[in-house]
Design a protein that fits this description.
The complex is a heterodimer of chains A (about 140) and B (about 375). With about 140 residues, chain A is of the alpha+beta class. Chain A has two helices and six strands; from the N terminus they run βαββββαβ. Chain A is about 25% helix and about 25% strand. The longest helix of chain A has 21 residues. Chain B has about 375 residues and is an all-alpha fold. The chains are: A alpha+beta (about 140), B mainly alpha (about 375). Chains A and B meet through α1 and β2 of A and α7, α9, β1, α15 and α21 of B.
Chain lengths: ~140, ~375
Amino acid sequence: MAKYLFLKHYRGAPASVNDVPMDQWTPDEVQAHIQYMNDFAKRLQQNGEYVDSQALTPEGAWVRSDGDGKPPVTDGPFAETKDLIAGWMIIDVDSYERAVELAGELSAAPGAGGKPIHEWLEVRSFLTAGPKFTD
Amino acid sequence: MAADAVDDAQLRDLIPGVLAALVHRGADFATAEDAVQEALIRAVETWPNQHPDDPKGWLITTAWRRFLDLTRSDVARHRREQEVFDEPPPGPTEAADDTLQLYFLCAHPSLTSASAVALTLRAVGGLTTRQIAQAYLVPETTMAQRISRAKRTVSDVRLDRPGDLRTVLRTLYLVFNEGYSGDVDLAAEAIRLTRQLAATTDDVEVSGLLALFLLHHARRVARQRADGSLVPLAEQDRSLWRRDLIAEGVAILQAALARDRLGEYQAQAAIAALHADAQSADETDWVQIVEWYDELVALTDSPIVRLNRAVAVGEADGPRAGLAALSELDPTLPRYTASVAYLHERAGEIVTAAELYAEAATQAQNLAERDHLTLKAATLRHWG
């Protein structure tokens, strides 16, 4: 078993096939999209392949230490940031092939006109804590 | 009177026999398994105050009652319930064969490896769903679904047919491989389950696997520092190796090898035994280790085995020979770059080795290995 992260980008990913921004969809199209995502997560839970999923606000700040005794320095948000993470899903599956299959399904969530978005999702694998045993 | 804690491993040793007894009486596997889990919980609660004279009999009786409750409460199963009640009373028999059948069922080829691992740990190992979920770092609900799906998948499998021992061994190997995670020591659990399996079957590869686990487990304390960082074999404090486990592993392996039916687990165990046998890293018999790798290549034709063989050749015949052997392999193999780095270091080519270690760190599949490789690169760059 291996864990994979599906990263959904607000910006920074190559353009989707059905590339209409969500705020231009009809309410029904938005509803259908949300339903698809919920059903997908529920199905993975029932499969025993689901770990976690979260969505993020578009805005964030940069934070760094400014030395002992001083409060951290914050900066941003930077609207021009090239890449922006919208959210993620973590799955626990038998193979990389299975992870790719599921990411493909997630990418086909319906968008404008009820047609699949075919958006690009980033698939990353987790580093495990310790080594497997080998001699 | 102070309550005695229940010996968890001893209690769980009884599980396969208890579950087999219920199935023997006509209970369906999935419900019986739930009933046995609940009986276990009852045992942990009540035994400290009132320990039964016959623990296994107590568990069978309690689990059977619980099974009847579960079946009664399920209206849809009414008909089946009647059939169960009509079953003849249980005989005294549920022998080693039944335990073996449970191993087969839980590692049935129709299950994915992850499902086989989860079902084996619960139904044969007696671990709770929560413990298994924690060990594999997934939510408990996910693991519960994985287990109940696995039960459904095998619900029509007949228990009186011979199963496939290879998938059982593969499943135990995966459990051992996971090591220590959460509050469950999966390596120790794999050893316990493999011992139990070895007691029910006469297969030499079961012995090979048990020997391999024991020999590897013997080095565990020496293999990681307290902070979790890796200690390479050559740098391990060999006085920390568990001599009792090594002696047991070697004895089991020798008995298996004497039967002259070599398999991959015996060959892996033989390599582990040669490492265990060396008083210091310098005294390691690398020539024999390479010979065992040749056997393993013939048995498995695995690219990973070829990679490990190449590193062993580097120790036996010098780093140049090792690098030559590596050059014939696919450079995208896991640990390929780390192995090339190591052999260059052995050859005294420190600058090249440092660069390769840094590159290997970016390809590592786990944190401990990545940290180790990053540290190697930094050490060679700063102190040569």
